[in-house]
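Operator note (shift B, R.M.): manual run for ABC transporter ATP-binding protein requested after the automated queue skipped it. Running by hand, logging everything below so the morning shift can see what happened. Input copied straight from the record, untouched. If output looks odd, do not overwrite the archive copy; leave it for review.
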Amino acid sequence: MLLQVKDVYKSYSKIGSFRSKDKLSVLQGISFSIEKGQCVGLIGESGSGKSTLSRLILGLERPNNGSIFIEEQPVCKWIKENQGQMSVVFQDYTSSTNPRFTVKEVIAEPMLAFEKKDKIKEKVEELLVRVGLSKDVMDRYPHELSGGQLQRVCIARAISTKPKFIVLDEAISSLDVSIQAQVIKLLKKLKEDLDMTYLFIAHDLQAVANLCDQVLFLYKGKIVENISSNNLVNVKSEYAQRLLNSVMPFSI
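Run finished. Output pasted below as returned.
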C-alpha cells in the first residue's frame, strides 16, 4: 500500500473566538488507502474539506487525531527521507509559478532543490516533449503562455524528480473544457508511462470518472462513498446519487 489515511480528524479555531471549545470541524474520521499505480479521485463541493485533506497528505499540516502513512511510514518522516518523491499540481497555475522565471527555470526548480543538477537543459527539453510542449517555449515566461500550456509546465515540473506520488489539487478546474480533456489525456498517458500514483482532487464527477480507478465522495468532512469508477451507477449515498444524476445526460 502506498498511502494510508486512518481515522483522520481536523478542526480549526473559529475566527474571532478565544475559547478552546469553539472549533470548526473540517474532517471527521477520514479513512482510505491508495495502492501503488492507482489513481484515486476525491470529489466534493467547496467547503467539504478536500483542500484540507490534501494539505495533511502533503505534510503541510498535521491532523488533530488519526494518522497518515506513506509506505508504512508517518507522512512527515517519509517526506523527509524521500525528498522529491511526492509532488503537487495546484489549481492556480499562475500563482504557483514564479513570473520572473523562464519555463526552463520553473521546471528545473525542484531538480536543483534536490541536488539533481546534471544535464538540466536536456532534462527540461525531455520533460517539455513528454507533456506535449515544444522545446521552443523553454525561454518564455509564464505570462507568454496560455493557461493550458502553463498547466502542462506545472505538470512537467511535478514529474521532474520522478515522484512516486502526485497530488493533483483541482489541477484542471481553471481550464476551459476542451483543455481539461487534453490535460486528462496527458495525465493518463503519464500515469501509464511512468507508473505513477495519483490523488486527483476535483469537484467535477465526469473528470474524476474519466481519469480515476476509484472515487471517494467527500461530504461535510466525511467520506460518504468509496466506489470503483466502473461501478458509479450503483452509488448508495444521497450525495453521490445527486452528483451522479446531475451528469446523467452525459457519458461517465
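Quick read of the result: Residues 19 and 182 are 49 Å apart (CA to CA). The chain is about 35% helix and 25% strand.
Leaving this for review. - R.M.
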